[in-house]
Amino acid sequence: MPEIRVTPLGAGQDVGRSCILVSIAGKNVMLDCGMHMGFSDDRRFPDFSYITQSGRLTDFLDCVIISHFHLDHCGALPYFSEMVGYDGPIYMTHPTQAICPILLEDYRKIAVDKKGEANFFTSQMIKDCMKKVVAVHLHQTVQVDDELEIKAYYAGHVLGAAMFQIKVGSESVVYTGDYNMTPDRHLGAAWIDKCRPNLLITESTYATTIRDSKRCRERDFLKKVHETVERGGKVLIPVFALGRAQELCILLETFWERMNLKVPIYFSTGLTEKANHYYKLFITWTNQKIRKTFVQRNMFEFKHIKAFDRAFADNPGPMVVFATPGMLHAGQSLQIFRKWAGNEKNMVIMPGYCVQGTVGHKILSGQRKLEMEGRQVLEVKMQVEYMSFSAHADAKGIMQLVGQAEPESVLLVHGEAKKMEFLKQKIEQEFRVDCYMPANGETVVLPTSPSIPGGISLGLLKREMAQGLLPEAKRPRLLHGTLIMKDSNFRLVSSEQALKELGLAEHQLRFTCRVHLHDTRKEQETAMRVYSHLKSILKDHCVQHLPDGSVTVESILIQAAAPSEDPATKVLLVSWTYQDEELGSYLTSLLKKGLPQAPS
Amino acid sequence: MQGPGFIMDHECARLLPAVCAVLADPRQPVADDTCLEKLLDWFKTVTEAESSLLLLQENPCLVELLSHVPNLQDVSSGVLSFSLRLAGIFAAQEDCFQYLQQVELLPGLFGAAGPLGQAVWAIPTVRSGWIQGLRSLAQHPSALCFLADHGAVDTIFSLQGDASLFVASAAGQLLVHILALSMEGRAEGHTCPQGGDWPMCAQKIVGHIEESLCSTDTPRVTQALNVLTTTFGRCQSLWTEVLWEQLSPLVARLLERDPVPAPHPLMDLLLCVARSPVLSSLDRGPWETAAQALSCLGPTQAGALALGVLKLQLCPQALRTQAFGVLLQPLACVLKATAQAPGLPGLLDGTSEDPAVVDALLSSKSSCAGLLCRTLAHLEELQPLPQRPSPWPQAPLLRAAVTILCLCDGSAAPSSSVGGRLCGTLAGCVRVQRAALDFLGTLSQGTGPQEQVTQVFAILLECLERPDSSPTVLKKAFQATLRWLLSSAGTPSCSGLGPRAALFLPELFPVLQKRLCNPCWEVRDSALEFLTHLSRHWGGQADFRHLLLQSEVPELTRQLLQDPESYVRASAVTAMGELSSRGLHGTLTNPEHPEAQQSLLPEFLHILSADSEGFPRRAVMQVFTEWLRGGHADVARDTERFVATVLQVVSQDLDWEVRAQGLELALVFLGQMLGQPGPHCPYTVALPKAVPASPLAEALGALCRVRLFEFAFRALFDCDRPVAQKSCDLLLFLRDKTTPYSSLWEAGGSPDSASVEAALQRWQAGEQGQPLGDLEPEAMLAALRSIDLEGLRGTLAQGSDHVEKSPQSLLRDMLATVGVLQENQADCY
């Protein structure tokens, strides 16, 4: 039975470490290869041993597809390709290929050099991994091999994020990765055509949330920043270098411009310059407004936002600083936080998720006395705000995408079980399709009914045409032939051709029938009467009287016999081939009516 | 979690009841999905160090939690799973197990009255928690009785076929563990009871395995085979002999079925038995079954088994021959189908072709590519092993690899209809091309007839030349070419390149030039890496030098210093650095005077100060360090100026690795001034080898002039720990070198030293501040002595990321999160 099998190794009823295995029409594809930010041991990567059980990785997997550059979607990739041993192709979009190494390098730095971990991937491994990448364009159909093809669609979320359609023959799966159905200040909304896949695998981070208007959130953010700098306070916004940081920069830049504000805004140096470089390079991936205004003014050439120098943190007066990393667990953001935490006039705005154990997590959960190194206690007097700017589709957006793609069934990943349950019911009710939400390690099996392409021989077609019936697209017609499978292809051919191609001998099958006639004459005379009768009726057919006394009409053979028990009755034995079935039946019914009275 | 900080201290004990209360309250969601995992990690550490019974008695909230959770109506699956696992951790100690039995807690968790019979059982996390809990618990005979009393083994049997891979796999592992536990101590000495005398529990498990092996349901057979593989892999006791004796006929019977069920797990089992020192020596050892498997599964399926057999140290020769035949069959077919000249030895001449192999090669592109890739990879793995078959058919294998590459690039002229179809199937097949190139590269370790080597170089050149070669194929083609070039030249230090390389190189350089201009950055990068390796090996060879300098390769490489892709710029820097070290970085105008070539130093300095990406700057620093170490002419001309300039540029760099490289360069300079630093070992107490006073003064003067002190002092307070650590090591070395002469440098209290100390304080506070200006060595040394470098090194060793890992922090975080901002939870990025 043909089927599609889906097994999440990560992102099944959880968020983080996305890694989903899909088997479709005998092809195996890995969707994303992410890491879990919350762990620093083996648990940070998906457990690939479940795949290696099936033999060599490169033999088992046909390709790996990465949806976007966030580490929870690509962080395990160099480990997988350079240390576990996958040597096959990896597909991602051009911006993802360009930006991935930056984030992977950053991750490596934290893992190896800050925590002193051994047995971690090196810079060379990251490069070697990136050299295995085949970069794809949006809407470009890429042949992975003769049977498997993939196609990328715009997903919003972050620069270069894509949804992927995976297709083998007539079966297809769409994987959304992370996506956003509402355009923001620098990216457009996700879009997919009505591709009607057998299965849509969608993220469900905000499965139950209908997010408040983006404008409200932005207004709230700007108000908080403005109020703080107005009263002379400093605002710290810890960010990851790529993604939301650019959105917030554009937001503040525009606001500063409009309000003619002079308070300095800084961006902690390092990754961001590179980030902005990539945003400029891949301008076609941003939204229409940015693309349109690009000629007059590049939105990423900020007028008010300047590079940050460590010395600036001590400057008196208000300022806004974007600093990395986003969870306040190291580097500049933490350094600035320590300087400013003690002043109640200041504010820190956390725009995203923080894992347990980080300073970011602690202050978000309301802790105000933090134990820093050497038992030194840091009292947090500054205001702490959480404002989510992560670009995921909310429940409404997810429903919208399901409506857009019109899948036969839906599978939810990248979300929490309870919330997924709610969305699953909603999807099943509204779209009347099956919806699944497997946990990690759980396999969902979807039976499919694939259409199998078949050819038809020219001879057979010509024969049909000779009957004067031209093929019509809207009127299906019955066509007789023999279906043969040769070289893994199906073809409908005439039976003669089938015999010839397959080198088979023909077996004749004859239908026979007995017709009883009341006739007292000898068998030969009865046969002669049959011959004369048929000869007079069947003028277009070849009717013959053979020397042995039998009569033939085309392939039909008629023989007369006299049963010993009743000399007044003669039995006509009529036999014919499959090809003359029609004529044979006609003749039988004719003979059953009896022979015309012969002149006595 | 390890170390003294992770025990159950007073603070943890104080926080624990509140945390337990939160966990037992279904209205309070646990904020972070990693918290429960970390909590379990901590309890594991605690129970390894102290008595679980005592822990439970001193913290009654834990028992309350464990008895309360299974009875809750709306309990979260995560907390329930956590409780099952936690109970298992505690019950691993027998006295604690007895205590938990007394309070009747375990049946409510693991028995029929527990989650097993409830709706929550449908959630994989709960089933997984149940299995893991039992896995921890099953450590003592009492646990076995408990399992028997509650019918747990039957549940585990059914969980082997669970919809969750994780649960199914854990169930199999648990069965092995229980079997081993119940057999523990039964087979001491030389006699082992026969299967009928085994404990009930073990008999039950073995009976289940037997039943599964006879089943017509392939997943059940797979489960049984996996359990056996794990058992024989883990346990080496005598009872495993009895088990194998009993079950091997059933395993062999699987091979009589058509098709053979679960071929992969079956091969794994046979290899595992073959590797086991206990089982491989038995009368009914695995050899006969392995031979049977090889012939039943054939070359299309048994490749992995054949390779495994050939890797074994001890194995009957007949089986090895059979295994090698299985491995070679697909390539033998290819050779036969494409044989050009009669008389050339093929592979497996005289044996008949396996029709299944021909069928796999011809039936479809994916089956053909799959079979060839597997075969080539297996042979590649086998080739370098000492136990590989001898004689090794190097010549036919070489011909097979070359033929496959010809088939892939469409240049093969097949002589048979099979060959013709192979040609059509493999044309443009990148997957097979990559595998064949890898294999061809490995074959460079052996010798081959002159004519064949020429063919190898020809096909490699063809691969490198083809305009439609994919970047991954080109990378492998470069790697294989390098291996063949180096092996064909013999020893690297010999006088010439060797005749083949000398013939090949003039053809190679134009191709290399073309590849350096390829529109794909991956190709340009692979070409540069190839050039670097080649120059490293042959930079001193006159013929190579001549050919290289006559080509445009050095010039093109230099142009790639401006490449738009940072990875390529970095590789170009490395390549140019290598060429420059050997006087090969410019077009040859006067071969007698390589120094006439234009210096690269200004260009590299420009990259170091202006390139927006870290990779090229890191590459420049690596080259500079090598140049300083090797006394490169550009550096030796004015070393002090060179070091001063580089350190000044590096100190401003945003990339921590560039700054760390700067310290590496400083250390090399220091070594040259003061003598080499020895390998640092914190446990050796040795007096530093002092430098005589007067050269020391001179050296210190130089260090001041290049502003090495200021660079290292600033780096000491770098926000990136590796930089600070490296600086700390450097300053410790410097201080040790100068300590014996400290009396000569007493300058404490001078205005200069005061200003240095003030600057140090500013830097420590995270300020940038002004540069120190020209100061005397005395002030620097005084400042050096004033810093507690040992203390600093200790602090730095603890790590600079503030992910607080202590249990106190975890418990506090879990409590603090209650009721706060539920919206934050799922908001990953």
Notes on the structure:
The complex is a heterodimer of chains A (600) and B (829). Chain A contains 18 helices and 30 strands. With 600 residues, chain A is an alpha/beta fold. Chain A folds into four domains: 3-210 and 391-439, Ribonuclease Z/Hydroxyacylglutathione hydrolase-like (Metallo-beta-lactamase, Chain A, 4-Layer Sandwich), CATH 3.60.15; 214-386, Rossmann fold; 452-464 and 480-506, no CATH class; 510-593, TATA-Binding Protein, CATH 3.30.310. In chain A, helix 4 (77-84) crosses helix 6 (123-130) and helix 5 (94-114) packs antiparallel against helix 6 (123-130). Chain A is elongated. The radius of gyration of chain B is 35 Å and the shape is flat. Chain B has 43 helices and no strands. Chain B is an all-alpha fold. The relative contact order of chain B is 0.04.
Features:
heterodimer, A: alpha/beta, Metallo-beta-lactamase, Chain A, 30 strands, elongated, B: 829 residues, mainly alpha, 66% helix, 0% strand, flat, disordered C terminus, MBL (chain A)
Briefly, what is this?
The complex is a heterodimer of chains A (600) and B (829). Chain A is 31% helix and 24% strand.
The neighbouring-strand order within the major sheet of chain A is: 6-5-4-3-2-1-22
Q: Would you identify the CATH architecture of the largest domain in chain A?
A: 4-Layer Sandwich
> N-to-C terminal Cα separation of chain B, in Å?
27 Å
- The radius of gyration computed from the alpha-carbon positions of chain A, rounded to a whole number of angstroms, is 38 Å
CATH topology of the largest domain in chain A: Metallo-beta-lactamase, Chain A
With helices defined by DSSP (H or I, 4 residues minimum), what is the helix count of chain A?
Answer: 18
The quaternary state of the protein chains shown equals heterodimer
Please give the number of β-strands of chain B.
0
Derived from helix and strand composition plus strand pairing, the structural class of chain B reads mainly alpha
Count the domains of chain A. 4
